[in-house]
Write a structure and sequence with these properties.
By secondary structure, the chain is of the alpha/beta class. The chain contains 16 helices and ten strands. It holds the Pfam family NMT1.
């Protein structure tokens, strides 16, 4: 008995140690926790929501979900599926809580605190590397493009990535795009050490750029750009170098689960994905209604609709609806593209070799005809 107890204790300590490391390496801090707050729930306390149209939870399987950040317009498919009762129709009682960055979300998923999480599989690869007995897998990818970018102002005179040489870049220490900068530099044929980095708290990243303390920042453009607009800039002032346009064609966030949970609850995951992508289809059909629904469920009443509108617009145009998704439907992946990005991540994060099957499966996805992108004629504008 003592041996078993010691074994369990060692396992808990190993997960706790990895959690500490990953929290320090938070990949993309939310702009809405900064002084440039644009949205979010009032406090860090659980922001749990239930299906408004199905208050009766009896007989439904509870599914606990963690968001990557504070609730944003990017969470519209989830909110629509909850509020319209799509999860309830599938026999699920879905609740969610805010996150504190992709890496933190993954570490908490790894401890078993949540059943599913919205985060990126590349950070999950790093978690799996450190926790081989608690592996996490992606059961769907809802962001077909990663929002990794370098952002600067046109007034700074940086017209191409090559002109970053000699400049000062800013980002939190564990920022994902910053960690991948050596690979980005390799693709644009500059030396990784040809720039200098200024490290700041996540909430100060955009402020440093606005105040001219750095020449550019790395980060998720869906976080950085709305904050800069809120800070008084216009889209015409901003220069964005998207990583996917310079050889790093990574996928964005996926829906993640511990492998053990997925193996034991396949029908629950299938039901969740069916309802979620039904919500995604609703978002694409009528993004204005979806945005208003997200704002109406913001308990803090601090959500900035215009900032969230811009965030959702960027996501729909560059991450949710791409030529690949138009052809194959939501949720899946092009295996060759995914394999290349995994290889690049292994190189960039210095991980042990990883295959596609180690980190992603499409076996829980609904049939393609249940997750197709609505036709252009069925889509309303985002107002």
């Amino acid at each position: 008995m003592r041996h078993i107890f010691q074994k369990q204790l060692n396992r808990i300590l190993l997960i706790a140690a990895s959690t500490t490391i990953l929290v320090a390496c938070n990949s993309a801090p939310p702009s809405n926790t900064s002084t440039n707050t644009v949205s979010g729930d009032k406090t860090s306390a659980p922001a749990t929501s239930q299906a408004a149209t199905s208050p009766d939870k009896k007989g439904k399987q509870a599914i606990r979900v963690q968001l990557p950040f504070l609730k944003q317009s990017l969470d519209a498919p989830l909110i629509v599926a909850i509020e319209k009762g799509y999860f309830a129709e599938e026999g699920l009682d879905v609740s969610y809580e805010r996150g504190f960055g992709n890496a933190d979300t993954i570490s908490k998923l790894g401890t078993g605190k949540y059943d599913l999480a919205f985060s990126d599989m590349y950070n999950a690869m790093e978690f799996n590397d450190k926790n081989p007995n608690d592996k996490i897998i992606a059961v769907a990818i809802y962001q077909n493009k990663a929002p990794f970018s370098i952002v600067t102002f046109k007034a700074n005179g940086i017209k191409s990535p090559a002109e970053l040489v000699g400049k000062k870049l800013g980002a939190p220490a564990g920022d994902g795009p910053r960690k991948l900068f050596p690979l980005f530099a390799k693709e644009v044929k500059i030396a990784p050490d040809s720039v200098t980095w200024e490290t700041m708290e996540p909430k100060l990243r955009e402020t440093f750029l606005l105040q001219g303390k750095v020449d550019a920042v790395s980060g998720f453009y869906t976080s950085v750009v709305p904050s800069l607009i809120k800070g008084g800039k216009t889209m015409d002032d901003i220069q964005i170098f998207f990583y996917d346009e310079f050889g790093l064609d990574f996928y964005g966030n996926g829906i993640l689960a511990k492998k053990d949970f997925a193996d034991k609850n396949p029908e629950a995951i299938k039901s969740f994905l069916k309802a979620y992508f039904r919500g995604m289809q609703e978002v694409i059909k009528d993004p204005t209604a979806a945005l208003d629904l997200v704002v109406s469920t913001d308990q803090s009443k601090l959500m900035d609709r215009e900032a969230e509108k811009l965030r959702l617009k960027l996501a729909i145009e560059r991450m949710y609806v791409t030529p690949e998704v138009e052809a194959a439907g939501f949720g899946g992946a092009d295996m060759k593209r995914l394999e290349k990005s995994i290889t690049q991540t292994v190189e960039g994060f210095k991980l042990k070799p990883v295959t596609v099957a180690d980190i992603f499966t499409d076996k829980f996805l609904p049939p393609k005809d249940k997750r197709l992108v609505p036709s252009a004629s069925d889509r309303k504008p985002l107002l």
